[in-house]
Amino acid sequence: MHAAQVPLAQADARRLIGRALEQAGRPPAAEVLALPGAGTTSYVLRVGTDLVARFPMTGEDPDAVRAALVAEHAAMAEFAAACPVPAPLPVAIGEGDAGFPLPFSLQTWVEGEVATPTSVAGSVPVAEQLADLLGTLREVPTRGRRFAGGGRGGELPDHDAWMRTCLENSRGLLPVEELAALWERWRTLPHESADVMSHRDLIPGNLLMGGGRLVGVLDAGGFGPADPALDLVAAWHLLDGPAREALRERLDVPELDWLRGAAWAFAQAMGLVWYYRETNPPMAELGRTTLGRLLASAEELVR
């Protein structure tokens, strides 16, 4: 899926997981089952009935990967303590060996059906649950922390170079001229609201449903301070118009934050279609669906 991707053989995964379980004082797993397509940055394997292993797909320095996993585990624990529905908890960091050279994460399993871009698109109850989730996360103290790094959640113009790459690579796949005009309109939207605690990747694949309700949230290792508009990407990745409006009204989103939320959803979706169209079609379809919603609502998203 990525350049310089580190391969993981099933036998290596089983051996390393077994060693990590033993060191953590846990019984051996009856079964280790790969979950193809469950991750874009990690190989995801179900371990028995109650655990998940996530092996990084990329990385050259084991020490750097381990430090990142330590930070992710701390963020996961903070998120799970605040989240109104179940979320994975960190269990252990396993070490690599000659077969697979990088450390990996063991986490608890959360039951539920992974959402898709259309599976809950018209659900006002899910929209209201998402609004309540975002409101709860925003109540977590930042403790003086602010957004840092080059990912989504800081300033929109910082992504200009990546957007140019995405637009160029999307020719023949998407209406590039229309999309370029949208980015030009949104990229200068000012960031006026203070940072709040955010999941930072509320895509359908990280949301679990059951009985028509949100029952779990995955992949919270990036939980931290960001533009309050960032987590609003969920409105565009998952919901159609009326449900989006229900989320916006329940959360009482200011107009500028709503527009920036659309811009962040755009910035994420633009990188999905061309990048994943051959290696991960569901992610490419997410990009298409989100961009379609944004284009359909473009005239409402002018400031």
UniProtKB/TrEMBL annotation:
It holds the Pfam family APH. GO terms for molecular function: transferase activity. The keyword Transferase applies. Residues 38-252 form the Aminoglycoside phosphotransferase domain. It comes from the Bacteria. Keywords: Transferase. The keyword Manganese does not apply. This is Aminoglycoside phosphotransferase.
